[in-house]
Amino acid sequence: MPKILVTGGCGYIGSHTLVDLIDNGYEVVSVDDNSRSSTDVLQHIESITGKSVHNYAVNLCNFEQTQQIFQDHLDLEGIIHFAAYKTVPESVDQPLLYYRNNMNSLFNLLELTEKYKVKNFIFSSSCSVYGEVSELPVTEKTRLTRTKSPYGNTKKVGEEVIEDFSQISQSKFIALRYFNPIGAHPSAKMGETPFLPPQNLMPILTEVASGKREKIMVFGDDYDTRDGSCIRDYIHIMDIAHAHTLALKYLFENPDTQAYDVLNIGSGEGVTVLEMLDAFEKATGQKLNYELAPRRAGDVAAIYANNDKIKDKIGWSPQYSLEDMMRSAWAWEKR
Ligand code: WQD
Which of 81, 85, 232, 233 best tests ligand 1's pocket when mutated (most atoms within 8 Å of CB)? Predict the structure, then answer.
């Protein structure tokens, strides 16, 4: 089976995607400088799949060291590029750190993809590229507005760089726009391990449930939504992971497909923050202390996906429910 290079393989989505690729028979290599992740995850992957994954502890902004990976694996047939900084508030405080890291790493990878003729490239993008949307649910044709953070803009510009590059390249590219990935591997042997104190809703919920954190602040209950709290599209991490395997499979089976395409990965359902708290309590039996707090800068009121295109194009559809997401996140936290 084809050999795939996964960048950011020690990260949350990268590690779960490595498991799905291995489960589907692919040979995998990881590159992750572990600046925001830990190699512990490689043991988790081995305990789940029985396979040990080699990780190159290389920063993709270092062209020579990254090139060596391609030199070592002249039989690479695909790349899935996750490696990037992704903490929204940090990107607001340190925009150049984000533009330098997230863009230079992409430029190096694209140059090496061409030099070593790696035919298939999947780019980890984000629903953040939509910015503040007026029409819901968002489709891939929804007009992108100014992103709310430099992080989101590195994904939006990244997509544009890839689209331009794809016009002169022999390779094929798909950008996957994730909505809100949550949950953990069903075995509870692997899950989200925030390297910095978590900013995202789900890891904060599980910290409150486990007593690590006293309560959760609900950022705003005065939005124009059904209960005043923000609406998001939450999707199980294993559904996100499998979308990558199916996107690669599509490119392998359709070598003459268009040079570049973009796909939403979302459940298609919008859920409010308060509904998430309720769903967590129902799924786990854990009471959550929460307090209503002012809005958080940069939040959009509501965004959720229309996922028809990914269903039609690569035959993907979400297999896990919101309850599965909550239960798996809680089982991982308890570990
Ligand atoms: C979800 C909702 C908060 C914490 C982020 C990134 C996005 C993508 C996914 C990378 C919001 C509310 C949260 C808390 C709260 N990441 N919330 N109290 O902001 O939708 O998206 O993660 O691609 O780029 O921006 O996710 O989990 O931070 O917030 O009320 O303590 O939960 O206001 O409405 P978000 P989130």
Answer: 232
